[in-house]
User: Fold this.
Amino acid sequence: MALSERLSLSDLQQVAPGFQRGDSSAWNDSATPTQAELAECLFFSPGDGRIWLNDQRMLLMHASSFGALRRELIGALGQERARGLLTRVGYLSGVRDAELVRKRWPQADAAAIFAAGTRLHGLEGLVRVEPLHFEFDIEQGRYGGEFLWHHSAECDEHQIAHGQGSDPACWMETGYAIGYVSSLFGRLVIFREVECRAMGHHVCRVEGRNAERWPDVEEDLRYLNAAGADTPDTTTARLPALLPLAAAGQPLVGASAAFNTAFRALQRVAPTPATVLLTGESGAGKELFASHLHRLSRRADGPFVALNCAAIPENLIEAELFGVERGAFTGANQSRAGRFERAQGGTLFLDEIACLSLPGQGKLLRALQEREIERVGGSRTLKVDVRVIAATNLDLREAVRRGDFREDLFYRLNVYPIGIPPLRDRRDDVPLLVDLFLRRFCAAYERPPVGLTMRALKALLRYDFPGNVRELQNLVERGVIASDPGELIDLPHLFRGEPLPDDLAAPAPAVDWLTRLGVDADRPLHLGQLEAELLDEALARSRGNVAAAARLLGLSRAQFAYRHQRARRHGARELD
Ligand SMILES: [Zn+2]
Assistant:
């Protein structure tokens, strides 16, 4: 695992100005991010079966099930390899959590950022961390720390299954600490469990310091290095959600099941010469898939040429596709090659294929079948070696039934259809995409890196995105422009000047009425009094119109009049 890719020293300094050196004495409980602020990042979305920690999807798993998994891993792989695997899984969590803290609290004090890892580790239910001391010096690149781990979940499970032994058992926790601190620090910091309950100690104790300051660090590195494992490692092999850059310079991003299904289909067909039909809603990323398919194909060195048939007037599409001979029609002053010729040896991507006229469809069919074309107004036959990827957001079968699309062409194109899922069916990719677009637009607009407020993020995770990935991209770009540099992007920045979509406007701030009314034990509420005040206010706002005041409070006129009279009698009695 290349730690240097995670965070460079300059990134860290950029993230936290003045972040040079410090220690645990500079940190106190009330420093941001506090325990409560971190806990606020955790939210449940049971309606759609998801739990989020900020923008990361989480799992709530029984500790005993984890114990069973761990036992099976040890049984199947042996203790050493199981330990490596779990250390690396913990490492990934640590890296993710460090990203979370950096993103949400870019201005937080350095010691508090380091300490946040101990609290997130606790929030996630693995262990209660008690920092004994830690100190760091960015310039010198030195880190040192010592922590106690109380009631580690992994330790409990290990002891249930294996009893006491001579080796530490908190593997995932150790990996987590290494991942969190190393990715924050930009250097490899190795944590080692020097005492463990699984070895008979009272409490687990860990020490962390720079890799070069440990003797025999190869031992620790062995567990971290997946490449050294003698079997294909699934924990790291699946980690890169960012696939290589597509031709357009934009990576194809996704980790969701729906995305993976489409991507696997794409990988399967890419090296074959087959014609591919991409189907999916507008904005779902069909061109990105197409260019990626091209890059994975044997034609990757050839050109990738795209044409959106909907963007060109119907009478010009044929000329655009097949080229023109001089004098073919008014304005054709010189001969020029069409997209087919320009895609020679490469891939031609035809978006919105259903917009092609029936004569154009006939020529396309011929090009696909005979591998030859004729320019408009020409009589010469040109051989073409082009792979066609077509795309549509319409139901082509339906177009065939209506007589708008040639059936033979449909079957010629529909050799290997791939459905590109709409963004609402791959919600798990929203955080990845938000992160990608944030980084892109912050760089483009020369802004410091920023994140989203909690409510903006929650809103995006609930939103249906009728415009798909393109809409999300536009929202993030708008958010970056509308917010001040360094300011977290909030809902009004994203949906600037537009009414909030219904599915976002619904969730009210989760403040209960008693809090809003400032009620507590010292300031109790008098319910009758509150009712009387509401009635009076409604009446005042309605300028004495009882019917209007009643409507404001959801009462009939008679109900309002009755309550109002009762309140006044009650008030008069209290005054006596
Ligand atoms: Zn332990």
In short: Residues 1-19, 227-249 have pLDDT under 50 and may be disordered. The longest strand covers residues 128-137.
